[in-house]
Specification:
With 306 residues, chain A is mostly helical. Chain A has 11 helices and 2 strands, in the order ααααααααααββα. Chain B folds into 3 domains: 235 residues, Rossmann fold, CATH 3.40.50; 175 residues, 3-Layer(aba) Sandwich (Rossmann fold); 71 residues, no CATH class. The chains are: A mainly alpha (306), B alpha/beta (509). Chains A and B meet through helix 6 and helix 7 of A and helix 2, helix 3 and helix 4 of B.
Chain lengths: 306, 509
């Protein structure tokens, strides 16, 4: 009995740990997408942030400096995305993919040049990491709580404030916002900056909280899973949070199932278990969510006539 | 020009000039609009009336000239400035967020603070007050997507009044309304005028201007060519001023000589993937030598009916017989086979379905027939033959400029439409489907297109015309069917129909 309880508790804690970067990333992406800017570059922003967090923490010895560096790095990419998609009305998917490629390459090049460890940053000691606050076993560092609070905060900002109303409007019908005398570009830039902030935190969590250092491609598609969570959640904060938890749970269970013999099947191959979250993503996106209702203007650059 | 204004001017424009590249859209326009009046601005497409109003609303900047509001010169750099000066605009395409409620749309851009709760409460109170004062009632918590077009327009007007506008510009406000909804709108405009609001109405419907406006300004080719009191002019005079020559608005045609049935639809239904019923048991018969008109408020299944009849979408139930061939869900057909049967289709949306904007006019002139001789030999296009064919069509249908090598997008709407009609009619089809034959086409071209359609009818073509313009249906059709909710809800012989009768049928459904 006690064993089961421990198993459940540990699995839940692990779920939360794994879901934290997804939740932060999803909330960031939600702001961007709600404003009509598709962001497939979440992955790249998170990766860049993870690298700069670990590199800065390692060089300065301060975890908090690492967090700040992560945010700055993610914001830089966010602004680049904004510059390409808002100011120059470029294709948002192309820009996002370009950012992902840029981040994947740049982190390795800079890592090799600065630390000469094959793209990795030096392992961080405890003083250079964000540590658990109450329960050492659970790994409840400050970013876990930030992630939990980010959900009601995102909901409140979008549903209850002037900024949120305009944000929703600009993602549905930018022309109406323009005609009301409100700047479409400035609204979208603010949304993209919020996205940078949250994906920066997600990246910092990966390299200086959950792990002790940066390794190449350490985001491993989590930015895309966050994007999928936004879609499953139909662009609403709480359902998107739920989707992140489902992915987290699947991942946590996968870790626990490794090496366990399932009656009747035998030992499940590790690779299959690790593929579960991705398979679920495919499966759900292929038609289990019905007609997802994306913001109508998502992906469409805003151009005034003439 | 001597102004007719006795009262103080709410808006005055002096020497406004605006060019877009080589196009001189507005040429030194000066006019004054008296406070508390309803002023109509009429003109053909491209006469510059919408551009002029966009300049007044701060959407475009004039190259030269001055805007005065209440006798003070102002700088209209953006719609924000216009709103601050008490100008509101109701656009032809509504600036409403579909997924928002009425209340959310109302406060957008005028929320009254960083948090919504307070703004919503104030807006609710203001909405009640405006509703009582002007008879503009609408449920504040209804979603825009669930409202009728007439109600959506009321929300647009409320939005403008909510922002404290004392001057209201309406761009083609009746284009999407039923006649009854239009009457309702005019009552609202009159009650606004009674309370001192200045109203400017941009339209090309002369009869409506005569019914509601005090004064009318006529524009042609970017300039103001006349200014009249509505009591001292007539639709005939205004039409002449707009076009610059005499126009015959009524079409005289001989009674139809019916031949055999060329197209018959029985219990035709169309259900889309979401399970929405777009067509609901349509029965329809079209005989050689007649023009059947389909009237109705847009969005009631007309588009889908044309798609099914032309073979673009297969019906989900029912049967269609075209020139002897039976089409049903088990025996679908594609548009090319339809054309081979002798059915031609002039689509509603010419820019998306009628032509390829980036193609040369000569290429547009053979679209759909590009694999047939003489245009195509051994899988290769015979370019000289295509050019010759296009030049011939252009001459016969008076398409201007007569340049087969010019890009389709460089022709005006009326000339594009004439080119598409020429393409389809030159094949002497047995059945001709025409969607919105004169949408966005100017009066001179409308006259021409109508005459050509009647000529085709007289040589035995069976023609189906779908139009949201009742006047057009009334002047063209021999029989009129009224569509609503994906169904044909009534039929009237053209000589027994008028706008009242049709409007009542459209509204009652």
């Amino acid at each position: 009995m006690e064993e089961t309880l421990t198993f459940v508790t540990l699995t839940l804690a692990a779920t939360l740990r794994v879901a934290t970067p997804l939740v932060l990333c999803a909330m960031g992406g939600l702001f961007s997408e709600k404003s009509g800017i598709i962001d497939v570059g979440l992955e790249g922003k998170m990766l860049m942030a993870a690298f700069f967090a670990a590199a800065t923490a390692s060089l300065t010895g301060s975890a908090w400096a690492g967090v700040v560096a992560a945010i700055v790095a993610a914001e830089a990419l966010a602004l680049l995305h904004g510059f390409a998609c808002i100011t120059h009305r470029g294709n948002q998917v192309v820009s996002g993919i370009a950012l992902n490629i840029l981040a994947a390459g740049l982190t390795v090049v800079l890592g090799t040049a600065w630390f000469a460890r094959g793209g990795q940053t030096p392992p961080l000691n405890d003083g250079e990491r964000l540590k658990p606050i109450f329960f050492p076993v659970a790994g409840d560092n400050v970013l876990v709580y930030v992630a939990l609070l980010s959900v009601p905060f995102t909901w409140w900002l979008i549903a209850r404030t002037r900024f949120g109303l305009r944000l929703r409007a600009v993602g549905e019908m930018p022309l109406a916002v323009d005609a009301a005398g409100v700047s479409v570009a400035w609204l979208r830039y603010r949304a993209v900056l919020l996205c940078g902030l949250f994906s920066g935190l997600a990246g910092a969590y990966l390299s200086i909280a959950q792990n002790a250092g940066f390794s190449r491609d350490m985001t491993a598609g989590q930015g895309f899973i966050a994007l999928a969570a936004i879609i499953f959640g139909k662009w609403r904060p709480f359902p998107a949070f739920g989707a992140c938890l489902v992915f987290g749970l699947l991942d946590a269970v996968a870790i626990r199932l490794q090496g366990v013999k399932v009656p009747g099947i035998g030992e499940v191959p590790v690779q299959l278990i690790q593929a579960l979250p991705y398979l679920l993503t495919l499966f759900l996106l292929a038609g289990f969510i019905g007609n997802a209702v994306a913001p109508k203007a998502a992906g469409v650059p805003y151009e005034k006539e003439h | 020009m001597q102004s007719l204004t006795a009262a103080a001017a709410a808006i005055e424009l002096r020497g406004i000039d605006k060019s877009f590249g080589a196009v001189h859209a507005v040429r030194g326009v000066s006019l004054a609009i008296p406070r508390g009046s309803i002023t109509g601005i009429v003109g053909e497409n491209g006469a510059g009336k919408s551009t002029l109003m966009s300049i007044l609303y701060g959407l475009y900047r004039a190259d030269a000239g001055q805007i005065l509001i209440d006798d003070r010169p102002v700088d209209m750099a953006s719609p924000r400035d216009a709103i601050a000066h008490g100008i509101g605009m109701v656009h032809q395409h509504f600036m409403l967020v579909d997924t928002f409620t009425v209340l959310e749309n109302l406060v957008l851009g005028a929320e009254g603070g960083p948090l919504l709760a307070g703004g919503f409460a104030a807006a609710r109170a203001e909405l009640t007050r405006l509703g009582q004062e002007y008879g503009l009632t609408v449920d504040p918590d209804a979603r825009i997507a669930d409202l009728s077009v007439g109600e959506q327009q009321r929300v647009e007007i409320l939005k403008v009044l909510f922002r404290g506008a004392r001057m209201l510009i309406l761009d083609e406000p009746s284009a999407v309304l039923t006649p009854q909804e239009t009457d309702r709108l005019f009552e609202i405009l009159k009650s606004l005028r009674a309370r001192g609001v200045t109203v400017v109405l941009i339209t090309h419907k002369l009869r409506e201007i005569m019914a509601v406006a005090d004064r009318v300004i006529v524009m042609r080719q970017g300039a103001v060519v006349a200014e009249r009191r509505t009591t001292e002019t007539s639709t005939g005079e205004l039409a002449e001023l707009m076009v610059g020559r005499k126009i015959r608005l009524d079409l005289d045609k001989a009674p139809a000589v019916h031949g055999q049935t060329m197209l018959a639809a029985r219990d035709l239904s169309l259900v889309d993937r979401r399970g929405v019923r777009l067509l609901n048991g349509v029965d329809l018969e079209l005989r050689a030598g007649e023009i059947v008109g389909i009237a109705g408020v847009s969005g009631n299944g007309q588009t889908e009916l044309l798609q099914v009849l032309s073979g673009i979408r297969p019906p989900t139930a029912g049967q269609l017989e075209v020139c002897g061939r039976v089409i049903d869900p088990a025996h679908p057909i594609d548009p090319a086979e339809m054309r081979a049967l002798g059915l031609a289709h002039v689509p509603e949306d010419r820019l998306r379905q009628g032509l390829v904007a980036a193609f040369e006019a000569s290429e547009t002139s053979i679209l759909g027939y590009q694999d047939q001789p003489p245009y195509c030999r051994n899988h290769l296009l015979d370019v000289p033959a295509v050019d010759k064919h296009c030049a011939e069509l252009m001459r016969r249908f008076d398409v201007r400029p007569q340049t087969p090598g010019l890009r389709s997008s460089h022709f005006s709407g009326g000339n594009q439409q004439k080119l598409i009609l020429a393409r389809e009619m030159s094949r002497l089809p047995k059945v001709l489907l025409v969607g919105q034959p004169t949408r966005g086409v100017d009066i001179g071209a409308i006259e021409f297109i109508h005459r050509e359609l009647v000529k085709s009818r007289d040589v035995g073509c069976a023609i189906l015309v779908v139009s949201v313009e009742l006047e057009e249906i009334l002047s063209l059709a021999d029989r009129i069917l009224v569509m609503s909710g994906g169904r044909i809800i009534g039929e009237v012989a053209a000589d027994q129909a008028d706008e009242r009768v049709l409007g009542r049928m459209m509204a009652d459904a």
